[in-house]
Amino acid sequence: MIKKLLIANRGEIAVRIIRACAEAGITSVAIYTDTDRHALHVHKADEAYNIGPQTVAGYLNAHRIVNLAVATHCDALHPGYGFLSENPLLAEICKRRGVRYVGPNAAVIRKMGDKIEARSAMQAAGIPVVPGSEGSLVDLDEALKLAEEIGYPVMLKATAGGGGRGIRRCNSSLELTRNYQRVISEASKAFGSGDIFLEKCIDRPRHIEVQILADQFDNVVHLFERDCSIQRRHQKLIEIAPSPQLSEEQRQWLGETAVRAARAVKYVNAGTVEFLLDKDGQFYFMEMNTRLQVEHTVTEAITGIDIVREQIRIADGLALTYRQQDIQRRGYAMELRINAEDPKNDFLPSFGRITRYFAPGGPGVRTDAAIYTGYPIPPDYDSMCAKLTVWALNWEDLLNRTCRALQDTGVYGVKTTIPYYMEILKVDSFRSATFDTGFVEDHPELTEYKTSRPTRELSAAITAALSAHLGL
Ligand code: ADP
Ligand code: ADP
Ligand code: MG
Question: Which domain holds residue 51?
């Protein structure tokens, strides 16, 4: 039985995992860099260990982190998302050192981390993939020839890519020629591999992904889908479960297909199968993420299943306690990534001290935050500082409740994406659930909002001060 678990991560996801440990009676162990000594996960964990001054490299040092897990008598390690979460080396070292890795085995992480290998594994299983290259591109000539066959526009993508980086749309041979070297160098820098491939660009697709859970006894279930079409520069901003854009028939087909995908690679633990849905209702496999995802909270909201708890149980060698037909869903949920960014200034990161923070509450509202009043957001890490997850019985109520929850949230001292989300919630195509991945680009006017919230706060403070002064 897992009794003590090290979290090889920081921020809101470290806090999320610590919470799952606390509920399961597992001692949680946090790690933190010098920069992160004031971070929330350090306070929340049962034990916390400093891993030195290297702000990012500290969380990427697999050997050192597993050594620490062994030295502190941890029997398990959770990688969270980002950092080492898709690095097969971490899973391998854990195995060698007798620490249970909360995730799939190294071979599956390696295979699915390579988008070309993942594509061919899916093709072999009879799952439709986006038309594209069979292997990594050898040179520009091959790319041009292939693009001619497939037809423009095409996408150049990093084989080892992630986090929305290393992806470029090319509308013509000229653009393909121009972008070819660019994507290679982006990929080398970001992912340590210059391998790239080419895919047909799906016109105005929806991003629909399926959460799956699998144990080591061949039981695989899906927890329905999430619609992550609201993205900016291939990075998700808002995620919704279930997708309000699918028919029940599509939903069932997709769930079954994702389970088949997981079985095809003998997947164990929690994972996500990502698909693109085109305008004609055709689904294409895009990639598989072999880790916990940022937006897992919306799936938890509609199914009531604690995905992190399940991950730990599976890593513990336990069998799933339910079959597909036992998994029910209820209502709709949406998650909004609250990023410390200024939407009015091209979403430039806005780091600094949180002068005041009020978490929202009320029915159906959940916050997963890494911030508190007085917390200085360091410039070294991701700008996502909180997630708001809202649930309601139907889509209409969810829109209203999300609006209320956003109004209920106060993050002062830094700029955030909150006012931008309030604008998104007013847009007809969003409200009527007829959006695709082009939504953000189609609505540049949404950053034109008036910055009224801080003013309202300020005027309330002035009124209060005046009243006090005048003895009212
Ligand atoms: P999700 O896939 O869970 O919806 P993201 O794609 O935004 O979420 O990834 C979550 C975090 O992990 C982000 O901080 C992102 O930058 C990081 N990340 C994801 N994939 C990679 C990767 N292959 N290399 C480096 N960082 C990554
Ligand atoms: P990452 O590993 O960075 O998450 P993905 O392959 O999942 O990269 O793609 C991220 C996003 O880029 C998708 O959600 C989608 O919006 C867009 N995208 C990727 N491939 C295509 C494609 N072939 N056609 C259209 N859009 C695409
Ligand atoms: Mg993806």
Answer: 4-102
